[in-house]
Amino acid sequence: MLHTAIASRSFRRYSTYVGATLAGIFTNSVFGAIMCFVYIEVWAGNPDAGGYDVSDAVTYVWLGQAMIMTVAVWGGGSPDDLATRIKSGDVVIDFYRPVGILGWYLAADLGRAAYHLLTRGLAPTLVGGLLFDLRYPADALTWLLFAIAIPLAVVVSFALRMLAALTAFWLLDDVGPRTLLGFVALFFSGLTVPLVLLPGVLRDVALALPWATFLQVPADIWLGKTTGVEVLGAYAFVVAWAVVLLGACALVLQRAERRVVVQGG
Amino acid sequence: MVDAAVAYYRIGALWVRASMAYPASFWMMAVGSFLMTGLDFVGIWILFRNVDDLGGFSLTEIGFLYGATGLGIAFADLFVGRVERLGQMIRFGRLDTMMTKPVPLIVQVCADEFALRRFARVLQATIVFTWASTYVDWTMPRALVAVEMVVSGSLIFFCLFVSLACLQFWTADSSEAANAFTYGGNTITQFPLTVFPSEIVKALTFVVPIAFVNWYPALFILGREDPFGLPQALQVASPVAAGVMLAVTALVWRTGVRHYRSTGS
């Protein structure tokens, strides 16, 4: 109940900035259109590159634009708030609240993701659907399976961003790890190029890393590349990463708590 | 002009010293942004594993386009990239403080939080540009056009950064829309414009002259006919485009500053 309240307030907090949202939708749409023309040219030269056809590729571009903010590929969201509080020392207040820090910030981030999905996820996809010939999920079940994959991806992304934010306990400034994480995520999420295009071993490695859950896993469900029992396998993969990474967060947080020195104490 | 440059240098040096207070963070960010821009080109290279040419251009020719636009945006980003934060400076009332100081406002805004790590981007673009240049059949006129291309390209991106940031004098939270033109302009010119519809190419020539950053001079240097049949004179007209952009930008900046009436809170 408490966590729902946190999530809904976080949702409302982000919905205050209408101008920023509209500007972001415009930018996502421009980038989506640019990449579509490039991919159309690539798939004209090689009609089944990576096992995708041209509509798959174009759809993948718009799904990517939709996921950038929803899954926070670049970083941002509630872990950034925590990093600021670690730097300023306000984090001590978080420690003596009768609620776990991880749960609190995860709820806030899920609220943020819900807002971004409905605005910066949905709107560019509609623009893309008007400009290009997209492929949509085959049936209601596929829509549902896709919808489940998104919050799971957000949890994995949250845990990764949280680990970067927690380095602020040791480094004082978390911008370095945060930037590094954003860059790695940009490539290994499949936002630069679809992971299915990567050559040989690199492709296998990329598909096993946690960032594959951001875009490649949901996109393959949407496009009907992952169907039936395979979807359960994909879910298991995402959940496994979520559990491992959240576990790591909890461990780091426990160690960090001992490092916090309150002024005068 | 000289005074302004000296002032810029002094403020910049101050911020470089400040950022060195967190060496771990500095190096992570420098390496991070080097890798990110690097992975960007790896993305294009991966696309080329699936096709032999893109829009009639080979990988080395695209490397040349990529390096040229990369240098343009890298220099502009290094020196004036901070102007993106104009809205934040207005909100925090810092712009008011700057106005009371005897250094040109534009210098103070651009030099604010000067980040040397952005040099990583210049380095990456230089590497790709140098590599691609070894495949070019150099002559004296071509070399001159290349110099003119990098200077004009930097100036055009410089103007885009500054003039679009001026929007924030009117709406403080829409800064992201500028990215569609600055980083979007960078992304679109990484590819040969033959990939895009001719209306877009005309808009990039006559409305927002981003095509002059690399496309037209590169056609000259690579010894190619204009695929859209536009006049050959455009291929050496980049300085003209840069000059027009500078005049417009100066006008926009002045109008913005005159319009500015502090935050009022």
Quick tags:
heterodimer; A: about 260 residues; mainly alpha; 12 helices; B: about 260 residues; about 65% helix; globular
Could you characterize what this model shows?
The complex is a heterodimer of chains A (265) and B (265). In chain A, helix 4 (78-88) runs parallel beside helix 7 (140-166) and helix 6 (101-131) crosses helix 7 (140-166). The mean pLDDT of chain A is 92. The longest helix of chain A is centred in the middle third of the chain and has 31 residues, at 101-131. Chain A has helices spanning 2-15, 18-45, 54-70, 78-88, 91-95, 101-131, 140-166, 168-171, 175-188, 200-208, 216-222, 229-259. By secondary structure, chain A is an all-alpha fold. The relative contact order of chain A is 0.14. Chain B has helices spanning 2-19, 23-48, 59-80, 86-91, 94-99, 105-111, 119-133, 140-165, 176-189, 198-206, 215-221, 238-259. Chain B is globular and about 55 Å long. With 265 residues, chain B is mostly helical. The mean pLDDT of chain B is 91. The two termini of chain B are 35 Å apart. Chain B contains 12 helices and no strands. Classes of the chains: A mainly alpha (265), B mainly alpha (265).
Q: SSE order of chain B in H/E notation?
A: HHHHHHHHHHHH
What is the average per-residue confidence, as pLDDT of chain B, rounded to a whole number?
91
Total strand segments of chain A: 0
Measured between the Cα atoms of the first and last residue of chain A, the distance is 34 Å
The SS-based structural class of chain A is mainly alpha
In the predicted model, the low-confidence regions of chain B spanning at least 5 consecutive residues are: none
- Beta strand % of chain A: under 5%
